[in-house]
Amino acid sequence: MTTYSAVRTTGIYCRPGCGAKPLAENVRTFELAASAEAAGYRACLRCRPYRVAGTVPDDAPELVCRAVQLIINGLLDEANEDAVGARLGISARHLRRLFADHLGVTPDGFARSRRAHFARRLLDDTDLSIAEVAFASGFGSLRQFNRAMREVFRAAPSDLRARRRRADRLVADGGLPLRMPFSPGYDWTAMLAHLRADAVPGVESVVDDTYRRTITLDGDPGMLEIGPAGQDHLLLRAHLPYWEGVIHVVERAARLVGIDQDADDRTPGAWAPLEIAVNAVADDVADLVRRHGTPVDGLGHGLTHAFPAAAVLADEPGIVGELARAVLADKIRLDWAEPRDDLLAALAAVGVPGPAANRIAWRLGVHRSKSLSSPYAIAAPSDS
């Protein structure tokens, strides 16, 4: 578990392994960077704690973990804390109380910190303009972006860009390259084996040590490439139709390859939950992709189609159609925040066999008792 150390005498918080050696009596600890920021501390310039993930405390109640997952999924992008509370069956006031008691930050503050941290990484790693960084990180306006960066990092975005180190910048060679940091114990070779075994033909590909897949953003096609890069990070190269909301793409990519999990509990996640569910129940998923997927030309590596949307699959006979129609009717919620028993019951109601339902739950991460925050974004864009 990541624990951030904040020094009362300097007002700075650090990630584990920082070379600073403050007196123990001057140190407070936080499990979330957002909590340290809410308490008035600013990020260390030496260890740059915005580059690592924090986790939800082990003793946090399930409601808090589900709320965190809903925020990561993007519920606060277009809505407010009332919407998060309503999804969980509690008031926004009670939700804020739970966050204050267990995380030390409000739901809005948690979401703002995540956006700001991702934006700081884009300022370091890429040559995107300040405006492009703002919208890629999920901010609704430049004014909102500038205010949040000053609140979290005590500096304007242009000043933060000027501070980046020479080795930070990733030189683009087609697509947008981004680091995906992971904690010790992550095994990319083992994760590739999992991804290769479950790869959807035409949609996903594992060649040598690189995973690739097609995606769609608001109906437009794109491609992701993920491979090894350093001792503490993977490299994601995103080929996207636009950069707005790229924070959402990186968050989901992190979940897909399991770097948002504890070292002892790493499993492959899901880019698109519907894709995982259909792959678990379809007799011939490759045939479904050929018949209903959106063709994507010129990618190579065996990538030919984007996975079909629920609205298209709803006309399929049998369990695939039943599943798609239930998703469209909101009878099955594949949003990573549904309690395990509720998800399994909803899948059983449309005829999904027990082993397949358990497989879906496993890939969606609801086999774990706690949802973890990841180093990345907040929301999920619409996709296939």
UniProtKB/TrEMBL annotation:
<dbReference type="GO" id="GO:0043565">
    <property type="term" value="F:sequence-specific DNA binding"/>
</dbReference>
<dbReference type="GO" id="GO:0008168">
    <property type="term" value="F:methyltransferase activity"/>
</dbReference>
<dbReference type="InterPro" id="IPR037046">
    <property type="entry name" value="AlkA_N_sf"/>
</dbReference>
<keyword id="KW-0805">Transcription regulation</keyword>
<dbReference type="GO" id="GO:0008270">
    <property type="term" value="F:zinc ion binding"/>
</dbReference>
<dbReference type="InterPro" id="IPR035451">
    <property type="entry name" value="Ada-like_dom_sf"/>
</dbReference>
<protein>
    <submittedName>
        <fullName>AraC family transcriptional regulator of adaptative response / DNA-3-methyladenine glycosylase II</fullName>
        <ecNumber>3.2.2.21</ecNumber>
    </submittedName>
</protein>
<dbReference type="GO" id="GO:0006281">
    <property type="term" value="P:DNA repair"/>
</dbReference>
<dbReference type="GO" id="GO:0003905">
    <property type="term" value="F:alkylbase DNA N-glycosylase activity"/>
</dbReference>
<dbReference type="GO" id="GO:0032259">
    <property type="term" value="P:methylation"/>
</dbReference>
<keyword id="KW-0010">Activator</keyword>
<dbReference type="InterPro" id="IPR004026">
    <property type="entry name" value="Ada_DNA_repair_Zn-bd"/>
</dbReference>
<feature type="domain" description="HTH araC/xylS-type">
    <location>
        <begin position="65"/>
        <end position="163"/>
    </location>
</feature>
<dbReference type="GO" id="GO:0003700">
    <property type="term" value="F:DNA-binding transcription factor activity"/>
</dbReference>
<dbReference type="Pfam" id="PF12833">
    <property type="entry name" value="HTH_18"/>
</dbReference>
<keyword id="KW-0808">Transferase</keyword>
<dbReference type="Pfam" id="PF02805">
    <property type="entry name" value="Ada_Zn_binding"/>
</dbReference>
<keyword id="KW-0804">Transcription</keyword>
<dbReference type="InterPro" id="IPR050204">
    <property type="entry name" value="AraC_XylS_family_regulators"/>
</dbReference>
<keyword id="KW-0326">Glycosidase</keyword>
<dbReference type="Pfam" id="PF06029">
    <property type="entry name" value="AlkA_N"/>
</dbReference>
<keyword id="KW-0378">Hydrolase</keyword>
<dbReference type="InterPro" id="IPR010316">
    <property type="entry name" value="AlkA_N"/>
</dbReference>
<keyword id="KW-0489">Methyltransferase</keyword>
<dbReference type="InterPro" id="IPR009057">
    <property type="entry name" value="Homeodomain-like_sf"/>
</dbReference>
<keyword id="KW-0238">DNA-binding</keyword>
<dbReference type="InterPro" id="IPR018060">
    <property type="entry name" value="HTH_AraC"/>
</dbReference>
